[in-house]
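Aim 2, interim progress: modelling of the dioxothiomolybdenum(VI) ion-bound target.
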Amino acid sequence: MTTNYIGQPIDRVDGNAKVTGRAKYAAEYNVPNLAYGVVVSSVIAKGRITKIVTNEALHLDGVIQVFTHENAPAASSLDKSYQDDVAPPGSPFRPLRDDRIMFSGQPVALVVAETFELARYAASLVRVEYQVEPHETDLAAKRGQARDPTPRRFIDPPIEPRGDAAKAFAKAAAQIDVEYSVPPEHHNPIEPFATTVVWEGGGKLTIYDKTQGSQNNQRYVCKVFELPESDVRVLLPFVGGAFGSGLRPQYQLFLAVMAALGLKRSVRVSLTRQQMFPFAHRPQTFQRLALSAAADGTLKSLTHEAVAETSRFEDYSEQVVNWSGELYHCRNVKLGYKVVPLDVCTPCDMRAPGAAWGLFALESAMDELAHELRMDPLELRLKNYAEKDLNTGKRFSSKALRECYKQGAKRFGWAKRVPEPRSMREGDSLIGWGLATGVWEAMQVPASAKAVLTPDGKLTVSSATADIGTGTYTIMTQIAAETLGLPIADVTFELGDSTLPAAPVEGGSFTAGSIGSAVKAVCEKVRKKVFDRARKLKSSPLGDAKLNDVTFANGRIVLHSDPSRGVSIADAMRQGKGRSIEEDVSVVPNDSKQSRYVRHSHSAIFAEVKVDEDLGTIEVSRVVAAIAGGRILNPKTARSQIMGGIVWGIGMALEEESVIDHKFGRFMNHNLAEYHVPVNADVHDIDVLFVEEQDSIVNPLGAKGMGELGIVGTAAAIGNAVFHATGQRIRTLPITLDKVLISAAGRREAQKSAA
Ligand code: MOS
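Predicted structure of the complex, ligand included:
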């Protein structure tokens, strides 16, 4: 047995609970006297409610109440009470606040009944009359009104222009100036949003919520309903995916708490898949990319201008264009990012917000430039490799991107690529090979953890973070077990509970590095205490030893110099008169050290597509992802994270699109039949290789985070492969077969008229 766990492909410690159904989700906590709330949603996108007729619903035996803006229990009137940790600037949406409708699907009533079925039926009887006002949901039609967003916390505005991009562009040997379009997309986690509020009596609430942050939502509930923090506990031991949709409290939380307080009983509100489409989505965007280069491929200018949607009531923005000023060495750069307020719910962070679509445009444009130059797209990237970040003039804390290109290309067989589009075939299929670069932030944020080692040698470590499917339970257990040299089975990690030590929302790929560093630090404190006890044992072989002289492994503390001499942790614990050892820590990032560097993870994504020449169907037959994400804590969970991101990239490239009918201002394909995501038949060979980096700057663990990097660049790699296969550049996602066929027909027409 060994207790070196960090870097090992340990199975998920919560895997058994998940596959056997013991893991419970927010809508699965059954308590006595539970009432069920069903939401009635607005069918218009903008206007006012003139009348809500509820008596038909209320007359049904078993219907308890219908809450509307006319009878909703009191809640805070201050905007700031509704501003959660992740809220962008503005005035957050408040359910049932007044008669105003701001987006289609907005909740306008909550029907509460003794059973879910009854509540659902009663909801169908609620009649709402509206005074309709004209709405605007079409970004393409309104893009002329784009303006700067109000600065948002943690989001840098586009850097100031450097050099003169327009002048350099005009003089360059090769130029491209194109526009890319990415539609709105939805997170679509498997677990729908739901909240079960348990009325504990005396005003105390225990809340099982589908969210990414227990304390974020606890604070929200306390501020909005003016409750003391000690009266509200938010729990989320398991979360069935979220991808950013749960970074902010969603409206079912407000409605469930409101109803529980109003009725003084336990209430559950669960949303349908349809009811999840009005909120949280990736904003629709247009991006202009103008690149120019010398004949040898040296980048001469780079212009990247993005336009995205936001809502009328909040200014949502993302980190989109600054990557373009950083990723390649270029002296003439102009970046821009603007938003257009529309009559929609505020968009929301979705897996690698900003980078996922910003890098789609940049990396597609780099491919277009390479084609223009008749240069290998990998060579073009190497030619312009950024040794430091020209946006800030800072060095990278670590950047093994060159190695990613090299190892990924080798694994993929890139050297065998025939450069000319439409030149590689297999039967009826055109084969295309494309590549793209990925980049994401390696953030560390303040986090706390607590550790309790009991006399029987069992360790429990806890922090209020979440595990949204990422593997947090597992990697935290590994870090704790290794630090104290205990078997995995003797270590329990607890999370998803607002009463645990402070942690932010799980997001930004910062959980492994941030919470992990707190777990490591708290276990090191425990380690010191156990060691002190071990030394004080009667005739202890460690009597004269210092902490640096020993190793904690296999449940024992042994001398480096003579591993046969040592003390078991259980013996050491007995020395303490049966008392447990309890420690807690808060770890804050070392800002003065970190701020001198740019801290990012990188990747090189290679994709192969097979395109049926007659039918236009596209299959992503192979993806090789070479990942530089610092130290890999668990290659199994890390690989799953990257694979998941790549599957998302396949979806983004070929399938995903939330379609608004602008006549109604509503997302029309609001279900998983019509909102397409990759299924097993769409996912083929995905090969993930890790290029490990030693990085002591990003955080004490050296881990950069894996949740988001995988999607970044993947859609571009696939789009570039489609171009290589077909000779057709589809700049509007998703790349569906109709676009490929129409584009092919257009090309044949053009050839004919040229001839
Ligand atoms: Mo992520 S989009 O920070 O959940």
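Residues 212, 243-244, 247, 349-351, 353, 507-508 surround dioxothiomolybdenum(VI) ion (CB under 6 Å). Residues 194 and 632 are 33 Å apart (CA to CA).
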